[in-house]
């Protein structure tokens, strides 16, 4: 019986909405490890780095809307301090760098991702690149701006992914080795003799 109950409890906990106090921005959201995203054949795992930090906490995950105008969360929010460098996750060309409704936004068309190409978005960001610039994976495209209503009193980067007008899960861009949150394991440099422990 416990084999059935425990997975159901785990799913209920991971999929539950944030507590009302956190949803209103009353304090920092706890770091919740998320399972790797389901494989999306239209999204190649071509990212070479997270857009902020080394392995940032996902404050809010991707919640695809049921329709174009339905509520949802069209990206993921990553915890980061204001002023943190924001990096392109893969090579491409800057599609947009400017302000939208007083919020800094940078959008990068990813190279070699078909037609229409995949496009990542980052905000709120003070851009250090310009429309048409070519960027490499890991290259800084701006710095994270403070505040804003999106993340409440704490700062976070909203990272989005689109193909045309269709929103996709940006975590799908990350290969498994970037998503792995398990402990590091060192392997022996030389093979062990049979019957001995490394």
TrEMBL record:
- InterPro entries, A to Z: Cell_wall_metabolism_enzyme (IPR050570), Dup_hybrid_motif (IPR011055), M23ase_b-sheet_dom (IPR016047)
Q: Which UniProt keywords apply?
A: Signal
Q: Does the keyword Signal apply?
A: yes
Which Pfam family, an example, fits this chain?
A: Peptidase_M23
Q: Which Gene3D superfamilies match?
A: Glucose Permease (Domain IIA)
Q: Does the keyword Signal feature in the UniProt annotation?
A: yes
Which GO-annotated molecular functions does the record name? metalloendopeptidase activity
Signal peptide annotation: 1-23
Q: Domain (M23ase beta-sheet core): give its ranges.
A: 72-170
Q: PANTHER family given for it?
A: L-ALA--D-GLU ENDOPEPTIDASE, PEPTIDASE-RELATED
The protein depicted here goes by the name: Peptidase M23
Please name the source species.
Answer: Streptomyces populi
């Amino acid at each position: 019986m416990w084999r059935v109950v425990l997975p159901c409890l785990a799913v209920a906990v991971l999929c539950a909405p944030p507590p009302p106090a956190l949803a209103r921005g009353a304090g920092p959201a706890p770091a919740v490890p998320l399972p790797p995203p389901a494989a999306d054949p239209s999204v190649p795992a071509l990212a070479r780095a997270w857009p902020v930090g080394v392995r940032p906490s996902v404050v809010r995950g991707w919640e695809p809307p049921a329709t174009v105008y339905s509520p949802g969360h069209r990206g993921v929010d990553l915890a980061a301090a204001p002023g943190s460098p924001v990096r392109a996750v893969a090579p491409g060309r800057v599609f947009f760098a400017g302000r939208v409704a007083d919020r800094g936004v940078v959008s990068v068309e990813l190279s070699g991702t078909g037609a229409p190409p995949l496009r990542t978005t980052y905000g709120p960001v003070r851009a250090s690149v310009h429309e048409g610039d070519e960027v490499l994976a890991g290259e800084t495209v701006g710095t994270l701006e403070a505040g804003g209503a999106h993340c409440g009193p704490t700062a976070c980067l909203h990272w989005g992914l689109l193909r045309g007008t269709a929103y996709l899960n940006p975590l799908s861009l990350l290969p498994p080795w970037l998503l792995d949150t398990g402990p590091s394991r060192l392997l022996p440099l030389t093979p062990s003799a049979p019957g001995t422990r490394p």
